[in-house]
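Hi support team,

I submitted a single chain yesterday and got back a structure, but I'm not sure I'm reading the token output correctly. Could someone confirm the output below corresponds to the sequence I sent? I've pasted both exactly as they appear in my results page.

Thanks,
R.
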Amino acid sequence: MPIVKMRRYKEFLGILRENLPEDKVSHCIFVAEYAASLAVKAGVPHDEVVTAGMLHDLCRTQSGDVLLARARGYGLDISETQLQVPMLLHGPVAAEECREELGIDDEDVYNAIYWHTTGRPGLGRTGQLIYLADFSEPTRKFPEAAKARTLAREQGLEAALRYVARAKFEHLQSKEVVDPVAEEFLDWVEREYPA
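Hi R., thanks for writing in. Yes, this is the structure output for that exact sequence:
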């Protein structure tokens, strides 16, 4: 089903255009479309995955100081890693904004937006789709994105998710600060969906 059929598509598109530059709006739309293309096979409701895909990066262009202030304002727990790399809060702050400002109270959508950057052990199917689609939507040009799409198409969501969690964690190893939740998610994915 096309994502434009989602009940609040036009409203959310307007919000994205008010808050993000065009390249980020395009990314959000491609994440929603790619995740929606996998939703039936994953057993996830179309509107749920389109909502999470469209809004996952709603706060992506906010500065670290703004994200920290908004996270404190929402009463979110802020980890030591997030204090060091406040950009990691763009998902949690977006999830809260969607709940508080847009009335989106679906827990699966909330968790998909909240955890789309790092994943977390026990992440539900909607969250898994958004995590995967954020990494590998069709406009992502790095070779790992293409491989993830191939795995999703030929071997299924679990194989693609395993690959993406591993690829993201290995990429993070080159960073100064690594969110331990990313490693916990990788361990969980490899236990939950063994090769």
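A quick pointer for reading it: The mean pLDDT is 97. Let us know if anything else looks off.

Best,
Support desk
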